[in-house]
Amino acid sequence: MRLRSLILTLYLVFLTLPIYWLMNMSFKNNSEITNQGLTLYPREFTLKNYINIFTDPAWYMGYVDSLIYVALNTLISISVALPAAYAFSRYRFLGDKHLFFWFLTNRMAPPAVFALPFFNLYSAVGLFDTHWAVALAHTIFNVPLAIWILEGFMSGVPREIDETAFIDGYSFPRFFVKIFVPLIASGIGVAAFFCFMFSWVELLLARTLTNNMPISSIMTRTASSAGMDWGQLAAAGVLTLVPGALVIWFVRNYIAKGFALGRV
Amino acid sequence: MDKPLYHRAWFLVLPAFLLVVFNAVVPMMTVVNYSVQDTFGNNQFFWNGIGWYQELLDPSTELGGRFYDSLGRNLLFSAIILAIEVPLGVLVALSMPRAGWRVAACLVLMALPLLVPWNVVGTIWQIFAREDIGLFGYFVNHILGITYNYTSGVFSAWFTIVVMDVWHWTSLIALLSYAGLKSIPDAYYQAAAIDGASRWAVFTTIQLPKLRRVLLIGVLLRFMDSFMIYTEPFVVTGGGPGNSTTILSIDLVKIALGQFDLGKAAAMSIVYNLIILAVCWVFYTVMTQVDAQRPKEG
Lengths: 264, 298
Hints:
- The structure holds two protein chains of two kinds.
- Chain A is mostly helical.
- Chain A has 14 helices and no strands.
- Chain A has helices at about 1-25, 30-35, 50-55, 55-90, 95-110, 110-125, 130-155, 160-165, 170-185, 185-200, 205-210, 215-225, 230-250, 255-260.
- Chain B is built from twelve helices and two strands, in the order H-E-E-H-H-H-H-H-H-H-H-H-H-H.
- By secondary structure, chain B is mostly helical.
- The model of chain B has no long low-confidence stretch (mean pLDDT about 85).
């Protein structure tokens, strides 16, 4: 028993130490970071780094833009994945297994391969540097993932429910929205969480398809041009953790099942 | 249970299908197109046939040597992180508290690294591991007295990207395993206790078989993601020192966007994708077979 809590504690300390250090840095000014050696807590506590971000549109619009394309992407991915997952979980049809595998391979395709062709494609259709470009590009890995997760959750719902509803005279769209969607609400929540997560953390495609729109790319720029403004960089980093922490809190009870793609 | 055959289900899949075709097939055709041509700039292209592929797969050429080197590094990286993350993740999952508020607290804390944007993961470790301002780097250099600098030492650089990945992704395996462990009914443990089974016997005969499915998903996701990892090592080491941490995707982006050698980059992309496709297929086959066995196991 004691060994178990020791392992867990050590692991959690290992997880939180780097984050603690980031937060510590974000409340320091640069002279303290570079000149005063290592200080375990900010000697001259300052909010300057955060105030900079919240008052400069170039900074805070980065967060807004990122959140816009992430939200768009989640919406698109879930709405096309829902019917597709239903089809996979309820029916056999021509080429279903191959199609499912093909979807899966797209989840695994390296973004580095797609960066350049995506740039060409989205420039050609006139979407370059819009939220739509990033939102659509991110569907390449989020749609397959959402289908995978939702299919797992849907297969847990007995087919008798569908059949009963159809006998009771429900049309397919009405059945789907009124009865089926509420039944797998937790699954939809988990799938939305994963779409949010992978769209939020991805940088390579988001940076290639826009002129410095995502916050993460603004961060890289500013930090390197100003001769490493460590405090500012750390503050921006801390703020990118906030949306993630919030959504984790909402799905905390389903998160483990979600990571198993609804298949336990 | 047999699912009914219903070809019109295709209409339900159609929106997702069209979206992924637009995103996957159209760009892939561009890549194939580039991979068989050569260019001298000014958008003038020449047919080059399979020339790039021959060069890429021949280790004696400059491009081929480079490709095999970065492929080797990538496989080494994937092997190391799998060897650490899978046992560690299972161990952490086994150590999780059974119930109460501490479970929720652990889950939230553990999931946090997964939600950090990938370049911020790089930034966090850059700050954490620097010898002058980083807690970890300072500790190793000045208190343990070991020279550690990830921008100049090959071993330090590798150590940093491996520990970073362990920090970032072990929680995925832990959460998966935790979900698997939660699905074991209490009756199994009670039966084991009556039989007087040791802790080890409980693990190998009850817990491990239940974990097989989720671990398969975990290994698949971790292998694939470590095989296409780009941002985190790029931010921390930029592929250096020298080329020592230049893995496949970093090398690819260097060729494609750095040198703008479209033909070479495209040929490399295709081969890279084929490797991934092959591994994916193996996992998928194993996974569907395990899925098919499930009803029999009850």
